Amino acid sequence: MTEKQVIKHFEETGALLTGHFELRSKLHSDRYFQCANVLRYPRIAEKLCKEVTTRAIKSGKLGKRIDGVISPAVGGILVGHEVARVLNVKCVFAEKVQDGDKKDATGKPVTKLAMRRFELKKGERYVVAEDVVTKGGRVQETIDLVKAAGAKVAGVVLLVDRSGGKVKFGRIPMFSLMQMTPVTWEPSECPLCKAGGKPCHPGS
Predict the structure, then answer these.
(1) How many angstroms separate the CA atoms of 68 and 2, rounded?
(2) How far apart are CA 192 and CA 28, in angstroms?
(3) What gap in Å lies between CA 109 and CA 158, rounded to an integer?
(4) Rounded CA gap, 83 and 91, in Å?
(5) 42-64, pLDDT tens digit by residue?
(6) pTM value?
(7) Considering only CA atoms, which of 124, 123, 127, 122 is closest in space to residue 154?
(8) DSSP H helical segments within the chain, as ranges?
């Protein structure tokens, strides 16, 4: 599958959006990948996830044994399920919980990822699956959860790398269907805000 074909799937399903957006990283951008839109279509989701997982397998970097796939909720859950299908292993996910009494600058509760429904066993090897990364914060949190349990991360598989290849997770191999280097701004420097626009939060 070529990048052109991948982009076509995103555009035809409404996953590639243009406008004024606040990303999960709090940065602003004029483009946004709403992967939930492409994941609405099981056959297309299966096709895209199979493609990136097959690339990861063929690279030989995942190792010979994979015990499971883990994803950060909620965006990565469907991707994780499809990746696990290809690898023929179990899939689990980490969920957001409130991080004590911590609050961000706007007064909203700060969240963190935690394992609430599933147990990670020492010595297991996991692939971390996600839909999109910009700064990679949630993926890194997921990696940290795996390591804290005494398990290992064999690789990271995702659909879109919005960092344009800048995000790295140490020596853990990462595979994505496409890379983008979108224009992003800090909220105080966003020209769309200065023009009177208000960013939206896709998926919220």
Answers:
(1) 28
(2) 9
(3) 28
(4) 8
(5) 999 999 999 999 999 999 999 98
(6) 0.85
(7) 127
(8) 3-12, 35-38, 42-59, 76-87, 137-148, 191-194
